[in-house]
């Protein structure tokens, strides 16, 4: 395995004109093996090292993003300095602006700090209002779908609407290719603070209304009528779309 990896790293890059460019370091951008090699490298350069050096400090890493849980600002600053030195030994460096210490503020930690939120794996973690088992509201440090992930979902829904209007598809056709994706969004982003995910996915019903206004002349420039029509279909066939099955349906009206 070591021999093949070494040969792959040293292999030259072929330019469009057929000439070869010698490589002296790194892996090619977009190379199929680059993520695998990077993950292997960081496993030994960071993961295994963290477990040896700070066995009592939990952490998570995905690709080149990591979170380290410290009990105090003093400990966090010390650990950050040691991590920075470790990565420098391995020829790496922390991102100068993305790397930061975050204070997980909630009802039990009421201090003030410059940073009180962070994003990780499509979730945004920051103080949020929550309700306990007795119905009492309190502030907790909780994850919910991030603004970046929400923007990407809305963009995908817009692309679906544009594609469906060009292809003159039926509601059943739209359901067949959108349901698996929407179900995935709900299963992932709806795992924590589900209401935020649902709020974003309501754009799907709005996109269906726009589709109906394009497809049927009787709904042209009649937003309320098109949504009421969809609502009646949702009441008759609530399992047609995954979102409808979850109770997020257009208002029937009439």
How does this structure look, described?
This protein has a 3-stranded antiparallel beta sheet with strand order 5-6-7. It is built from 8 helices and 7 strands; from the N terminus they run αββαββαβββααααα. It has helices spanning 2-10, 34-53, 73-89, 147-167, 171-189, 194-215, 223-236, 242-245, and strands at residues 13-14, 20-21, 59-62, 65-68, 118-120, 123-131, 137-145. Strand 3 and strand 4 form a beta hairpin. It has 254 residues and is of the alpha+beta class. The mean pLDDT is 88.
Computed structural class: alpha+beta
In which range does the helix fraction lie? 40-55%
Overall outline: flat
Uncertain stretches of 5 or more adjacent residues: none
The helix-strand sequence is HEEHEEHEEEHHHHH
What is the mean pLDDT?
Answer: 88
| Number of separate helices | 8
Estimate what percentage of residues fall within beta strands.
5-15%
Whole-angstrom Rg: 25 Å
Let me know the largest β-sheet. 3 strands, antiparallel
């Amino acid at each position: 395995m070591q021999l093949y990896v070494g040969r792959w790293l040293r292999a030259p890059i072929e330019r469009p004109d057929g000439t070869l460019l010698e490589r002296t370091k790194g892996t090619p951008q977009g190379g199929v093996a680059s993520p695998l090699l990077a993950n292997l490298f960081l496993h030994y350069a960071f993961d295994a090292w963290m477990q040896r050096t700070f066995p009592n400090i939990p952490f998570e890493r995905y690709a080149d993003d990591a979170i380290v849980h410290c009990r105090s600002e003093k400990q966090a600053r010390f650990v950050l300095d040691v991590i920075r030195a470790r990565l420098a030994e391995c020829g790496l460096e922390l991102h100068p602006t993305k790397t930061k210490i975050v204070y997980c503020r909630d009802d039990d930690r009421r201090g003030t700090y410059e940073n009180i939120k962070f994003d990780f794996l499509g979730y945004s973690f920051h103080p949020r209002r929550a309700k306990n088992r007795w119905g009492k509201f309190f502030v907790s440090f909780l994850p919910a779908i991030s603004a970046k992930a929400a923007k990407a979902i809305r963009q995908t829904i817009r692309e679906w609407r544009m594609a469906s209007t060009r292809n003159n598809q039926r509601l059943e056709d739209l359901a067949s290719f959108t349901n698996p994706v929407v179900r995935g969004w709900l299963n992932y982003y709806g795992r924590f603070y589900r209401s935020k995910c649902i709020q974003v996915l309501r754009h799907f019903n709005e996109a269906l209304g726009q589709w109906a206004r394009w497809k049927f002349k009787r709904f042209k420039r009649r937003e309320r009528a098109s949504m009421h029509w969809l609502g009646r279909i949702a009441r008759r066939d609530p399992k047609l779309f995954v979102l409808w099955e979850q109770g997020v349906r257009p208002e029937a009206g009439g």
